[in-house]
Amino acid sequence: MKRFIKILYPAACVLITMLLGSCTDPGAIVDTNTQIADHNWSYVNRAKFDCKIDDEKAAYNLYFNLRVTDAYKYSNLFVLIHQKNPNGYIKTTRYELKLASKDGQWLGKGSGNLYSYQVPFQSGFKFPVKGTYHFEIEQNMRDNPLHEVSDVGIRVEKVK
User: Fold this and answer.
1) Residue 21 and residue 15: Cα distance in Å, rounded?
2) Are 157 and 78 in contact (CB under 8 A)?
3) Which of 24, 93, 123, 156 is most enclosed, with most CB atoms within 10 A?
């Protein structure tokens, strides 16, 4: 029995490691989220992310990641996305994200009382130069803080 366990345990560890390693997305340059403290997103609490671009000739898709609770009281969300390139140039763009249909149905994927969204905000985008880009996401709604926002993030992937 001990011999069987000595063989089975390392084999199970290798199998689990291989399975977990295969879960990563090779197309994603960045796919990360920041948790919002107490689900209250204030104007001053910008979510900050860095993205290293090695190929400025490639096209990229950029997504906004979001999770809200079912108690979020709006059908949309306005955000400002501040993008700073390696040369120091800052571009700020305002986006509206639709979170629910007109009849009140959430458009995101639900799990318990959380709804997840991955909304494209730039498709086929070409970064002008190689280097590290800095993104900051700021909520731009009238409420401050904005209640029932769990996580915000960004995903950058090469176009396939």
Assistant:
1) 10
2) no
3) 156
* Triad 136, 80, 57: Cα angle to 5°: 65
Cβ contact 58:126 at 8 Å:
yes
Please give the pLDDT value at position 10. Answer: 46
Q: Cβ contacts of residue 80 below 8 Å, gap of 6+?
A: 92, 93, 94, 95, 137, 138, 140
Taking 70 as the pLDDT cut, the residues of the chain under it are 1-26
**Residue 101 identity (one-letter amino acid):** S
Contacts of residue 120, Cβ cutoff 8 Å, sequence gap at least 6: 61, 62, 63, 64
Sign of CA dihedral 147, 153, 159, 160: negative
Cα angle, residue 108 at apex, residues 140 and 77 outer, rounded to 5°: 10
Round to whole Å and give the CA distance between 66 and 94. Answer: 16
pTM comes to 0.79
